[in-house]
Design goal:
This protein has about 270 residues and is an alpha/beta fold. The protein has 8 helices and 10 strands.
Length: about 270
């Protein structure tokens, strides 16, 4: 059974991410945990009283959401969690528990100061969790994953399990796999670096970057009709390290017109 964690704040953005997850995984055996996190500020009422009110109201809203979804997806197993916590720490704590195969989150485009505030949750989760994170742009409508693109540097994939989430999705959707290698200058072929994913029979595309990693990635996504773009968050020098500087991660999370799958190579 595939277990998926979907944080919801009852907005259209999180509802769209939930719908995407349901359509992506389809009739497979899945269990979706809907997570709502709330926090409270000191008031004239006691903290316990206000927390109880918020928790009960959240639970009622959650029950209505699940009831509505079950009409269209009766085969899906749903669980719910209501937590009093900070959003990033609550989501990452569950994501790092090892209980979930994917975290599916919705994001909404923003810029300037608004981007900084809204990005604290999406960017924080991506930077702190070890679980695969699937980021769904607000308003994005699901369509079949004909192709999944994986961005790689010269660093080879040393652990086959790292891309297991890609294998899962490719099998479900019968997707083709493309490896995209972006470099600022001509480099050696990376075919020999793909030993661990040869079972996916990936095609390879080379493209020269401009030095602006965020722009290069965004331009590629816009120009190519890929249904899902996969980035590997690593601590290695070079391309991957630059992609996942916090500012670039945040911008790409907001700017990508297609869903992003973020994997974590923490070795």
């Amino acid at each position: 059974m595939i277990k998926i964690l979907v944080p919801v704040d009852f907005s259209s953005t999180s509802s769209n991410a939930l719908l995407y997850a349901l359509q992506l995984f389809g009739a497979t055996s899945i269990e979706i945990t809907l997570l709502h996190i709330f926090s409270s500020n000191p008031t004239t009422m006691s903290m316990k009283n206000i927390d109880d009110v918020i928790a009960k109201d959240s639970q009622r809203t959650m029950e209505k959401l699940v009831e509505k979804i079950r009409k269209d997806y009766p085969e899906v197993s749903f669980k719910t969690k209501i937590l009093h916590d900070h959003a990033v720490s609550g989501i990452t704590s569950l994501g790092n528990s090892g209980e979930y195969d994917f975290i599916v989150m919705g994001t909404k485009g923003a810029s300037g100061l608004k981007e900084v505030f809204l990005g604290s949750v999406a960017g924080g989760v991506i930077s702190k969790t070890s679980a695969p994170v699937l980021v769904v742009p607000d308003g994005f409508r699901f369509h079949h994953l004909d192709e999944i693109v994986i961005a790689l540097s010269n660093k080879d994939i040393s652990d086959s399990k790292l891309v297991d989430p890609v294998r899962t999705l490719a099998k479900l959707q019968q997707s083709k796999i493309k490896v995209l290698h972006v470099s600022e200058e001509k480099t050696e072929s990376i075919e020999n670096s793909l030993t661990m994913i040869k079972d996916l029979n990936p095609s390879i595309e080379y493209t020269f970057g401009t030095g602006d990693t965020n722009k290069d990635i965004h331009d590629y996504i816009v120009k190519n009709d890929s249904a899902l773009f996969c980035l590997i968050r690593g601590h290695h020098k070079g391309f991957l390290n630059r992609i996942f500087q916090e500012s670039v991660t945040l911008k790409q999370t907001f700017e990508s017109p297609v869903p992003l799958l973020i994997l974590h190579d923490l070795d």
